[in-house]
Write the structure tokens for this entry.
Amino acid sequence: MKLLMITRKVDRDDAQAGFTYGWVKKMGQQVDVLKVICLEKGNTKGLSNNVEVFSLGKENGKNKLREFINFYRGAFKFIGKVDGVFCHQNPEYTILIGPLAKLRRKKIVSWYSHKAINWRVKLMAFFAEKIITPTQEGFGLKSDKKVVVGHGIDTELFKPAEQKNKNDIFRVISVGRISPIKNYETLIEAIEIIRDKIDIKVDIIGGPGIKKQEIYFDKLKWMVKNKGLDKVIRFKGLIPNQELPRYYQESDLSINLCPTGSPDKAVLESMASGLPVLVCNKTFASDLGPFVDKMLFKEKDAKDLSQKILKLINSNQLKGIGLFLREQVVKNHNLDNLIGRIIKLYK
């Protein structure tokens, strides 16, 4: 099998898009030839020799005209050498390659995971033979092209520590973009409630992406300082994807505050690392299995979150919960299995 993959960025060191490197690497291991067109290219060390990455050049500065021209340079270079096209994330990639792929009779499989439905999504659905999505909610259009495949988590990268160092301090981690939708205020307020009941440290990993998010970030830092939590809650900034597993492994509990909707990848990475994770996103209810009542807290309810944290600490079930959640990800969201399912769609 020879495939062309189109994605935004291939860079193993990138904190936000670094997971795509894992997709490219795993797909390269399961096909004979993999050609990749990406908007931006960074560190690609470790990819196998059958993988060729063609960048549109954004790493040298943004230039939409140059990127558009380079896209079709890459498309014409690769389209005749592959059996099919896999478009990852943005609908625009399917739209751009669609006419050429149709002309050359190359099947397009597109990945989409967002609640937004607009003309771009509808045009993507026209060109694609199949649209794969992690959950039923991940693609809202009614279409017989939709295939629910689960998320793709690299369970060889995100795995439990072989040996965990004992520590008197209870360590909490929360990973994700610094954005109002993440509801970090709830976490800060919950920690304020329990600060005198337990010796606890919280690491928030991530950073803002746009101006509006920077304003929100400033608000969070002010909250932490105003509540006297400077030595309890630390903002660690962006961490390269390949280094994240160590942070999960060194933690005792993960907390994710995204509302109910599409699954947040950070939750599944936590679970794959053998880490219990508290969520308010009800989409994860089935993954939490018999522990759902312990792990699901009420959205934007700091009191409920604080109570759930304390109950977990006192339950002596953290290790058992973590191992169960790891098994759930390996079974339902394993990247190797996901790549295999994608490849089967071309046969």
